[in-house]
Write a structure and sequence with these properties.
Blueprint (H helix, E strand, L loop, with lengths): L6 H15 L7 E5 L2 E6 L2 E3 L1 E5 L10 H11 L3 E7 H4 L9 H12 L3 E11 L8 H4 L7 E3 L5 E5 L4 H22 L5 E8 L12 H7 L5 H6 L14 H5 L3 H24 L4 E6 L24 H7 L5 E6 L4 H11 L7 E5 L8 H7 L4 E4 L19 H14 L3 H9 L3 E5 L7 E5 L2 E6 L32 E6 L4 E7 L1 E7 L8 E11 L5 E6 L3 H4 L2 E3 L4 E9 L1
Parallel strand pairs: 4-5, 4-13, 5-6, 6-9, 9-10, 10-11, 11-12, 12-13
Antiparallel strand pairs: 1-2, 2-3, 7-8, 14-17, 15-16, 16-19, 17-18, 18-23, 19-22, 20-21, 20-23
Helix pairs in contact: 2-14, 6-10
The structure holds (2R,3S,4R,5S)-2-(hydroxymethyl)piperidine-3,4,5-triol (DGJ).
Length: 557
């Protein structure tokens, strides 16, 4: 796969290929360097400052409410569905009018697109498949539970279903190639949406039973070891190898293999990066076989290796973050960020408490992130997301994106080089440190901008209950890039940062050489607005409520 190719080689090849072909814009692709990743758009690293529209906003007449919110969000990328039911309402008759309108309007708004293919599965169900698919169990079989009853979920073993979905998806990709090859407005495609199955661990139909008895394919054996609790055979049937995990792993393989065929056919006509998104299983629960507690067969963290083995044309399995607890977010990000799996958060709740995670996600080297439900359709998915459906819903995200956006391309490059780090205030609100090269930065929260550090926890017994307004719930965060030996770009809000020497600088007294507040211009040049000194640095770097960008240089003496 290209994503494992050497970055320089890929960039050179891209430049060469586009020069040869006279093509204006190289095709987007993922690259990796030393286990880190970048999405390359227009030949340059790109950070997806994304916004995902609501599920039913995929119609031309609904788009104006999407664009308005995307603008307020300062997002550079819109994620939005393309539904199989709208693309092929009657079998074999394709309607690309929505896609054409969407792509044209995205160009007018100077926003890139990530298209979400709502095909056989959307949140595991078939509701976005055309009616001629949805109500024909004979031709497009549903899964069968252990009790012998039909599940709501279409079977990944349905050959006709796979054929039909593949044909529709390939038609979409061929159309995109025709209308977008010269522009690359569409930069990635999600294949299906939150796949897997609730209520049954796998397909127990006769066809499912026959497939389950087959030996585990070599590609899966090579990548996926049995959990430590299973004394499984080195090869053999799914049960032989994976014991109590066999049903879930088999189903993951079946779903991933289906997606692979859809993606492979689509990429054969137009080779955009492709990914799947995941309705998570609890990352903190002790590992145990499926017991109805998540969508079996989806790309949960425990089966990413099976997806990698079965679906090489899917570049990324991305986590959809809808559990707001900081410990779960942290654990999930760690489980999905791997050398063979770029971190991309295709969805995250749009409640205000999620905004601070943007710093953590982009700081730790993600290629992008997107809060879900960023449009003014007057629909709220509370309690997963925000209660508000107006500008106040978009604002916590828009402020951060607005500050981030001028340096988004630089950030993607720094992140690929391993220079970036991210912090989000935890639910415990305790200080956190990040280790940089020869410097350590400690972040603390709920501090006044003037005065010594205060431990905000009641159990700390400081007696201080007088905290800055607006800090009632955690919303602080910072992302840092070390751009030189002693030089840092910091973006953050509601956080105090303290720098101290470590490594070669350990024990050396240090002070700020410069703390410039400013921004990057369109050419990537730093523009200083003012220099922080005196009260503004005597008590550490106290980033205010508004996302602020600083260029900090440290010195030792
Ligand atoms: C996750 C799904 O992927 C989205 O399409 C949406 O249904 C949200 N859940 C809930 O609003």
């Amino acid at each position: 796969m290209k994503k494992t190719a050497n970055l320089l080689a890929v960039l050179c090849a891209l430049a060469f290929a586009s020069a040869q072909a006279g093509a204006a814009v190289p095709i987007p692709q993922l690259v990796q360097k030393d286990g880190r990743h970048a999405l390359i758009v227009d030949g340059r690293p790109y950070t997806v400052l994304g916004a995902q529209a609501h599920n039913s906003s995929n119609y031309p007449a609904a788009l104006h409410k999407v664009w308005a919110a995307v603008k307020d969000a300062h997002a550079n990328t819109l994620e939005i569905p393309v539904a199989w039911e709208q693309l092929e309402p009657a079998e074999g008759k394709f309607d690309f009018s929505y896609v054409d309108t969407l792509v044209a309007q995205a160009r007018q708004h100077k926003v890139r697109l990530v298209l979400l293919w709502f095909g056989t599965w959307k949140n595991t169900g078939p509701q976005y498949a055309p009616e001629w698919v949805r109500f024909n169990n004979q031709r497009f079989p549903r899964m069968v539970g252990k009790d012998g009853k039909n599940s709501y979920c279409l079977s990944p073993l349905g050959e006709q279903t796979l054929k039909a979905d593949t044909r529709a998806f390939t038609a979409l990709m061929a159309h995109l190639k025709t209308i977008d090859e010269a522009h690359r407005t569409v930069i990635m495609v999600q294949v299906e949406n939150e796949v897997g199955t609730y209520g049954t661990v796998r397909d127990f139909s006769p066809m499912g039973e026959a497939a389950f008895r087959q030996p585990v394919p070599a590609a899966v054996l090579a990548r996926k070891k049995a959990p430590p609790s299973v004394a499984g055979a080195a090869s053999g049937s799914w049960s032989d190898v994976y014991g109590a995990y066999a049903d879930e792993y088999f189903h993951a393989y079946a779903v991933a293999s289906y997606i692979e065929q859809v993606a492979r056919a689509g990429r054969a006509v137009y080779d955009l990066p492709m990914f799947v998104n995941n309705a998570l299983r609890d990352p903190l629960e002790p590992m145990a076989p499926w017991k109805g507690n998540f969508a079996s067969g989806g790309p949960t963290f425990d089966v990413i290796d099976i997806y990698k083995a079965a679906a090489p044309h899917i570049d990324i399995a991305g986590p959809d973050l809808y559990s707001p607890e900081s410990a779960k977010v942290d654990a999930t990000l760690g489980l999905f960020q791997r050398a063979d799996n770029a971190l991309f958060v295709p969805e995250m709740g749009n409640a205000p408490g999620y905004a601070r995670y943007i710093y953590q996600i982009l700081g730790r080297g993600a290629i992008g992130v997107a809060p879900f439900g960023i449009d003014y359709a007057e629909y709220t998915n509370y309690p997963l997301g925000a209660k508000a459906t107006d500008k106040t819903m978009v604002e916590p995200f828009g402020r951060i994106y607005a500050a981030f956006r001028p340096m988004a391309q630089l950030w993607a490059q720094w992140s690929l080089e391993g220079r970036t780090h991210g912090i989000a205030e935890s639910d415990a609100r305790t200080p956190q440190s990040v280790a940089l090269k020869n410097w350590k930065v400690t972040a603390s929260f709920r501090q006044w901008q003037f005065g010594p550090v205060v431990d905000p926890r009641p159990e700390a017994g400081t007696g201080k209950q007088d905290f800055p307004a607006g800090t009632e719930s955690p919303n602080g965060g910072a992302a840092l890039a070390q751009i030189g030996e002693n030089e840092f770009i910091v973006i953050g809000q509601r956080v105090r940062l303290a720098f101290e020497g470590s490594g070669a600088n350990a024990g050396k007294p240090s002070m700020y050489a410069r703390v410039e507040e400013g921004h990057f211009d369109a050419a990537g040049k730093w523009v200083m607005e003012r220099n922080w000194n005196g009260d503004q640095t005597d008590w550490g770097i106290n980033l205010p409520a508004s996302p602020t960008v600083l260029k900090i240089r440290m010195g030792t003496y």
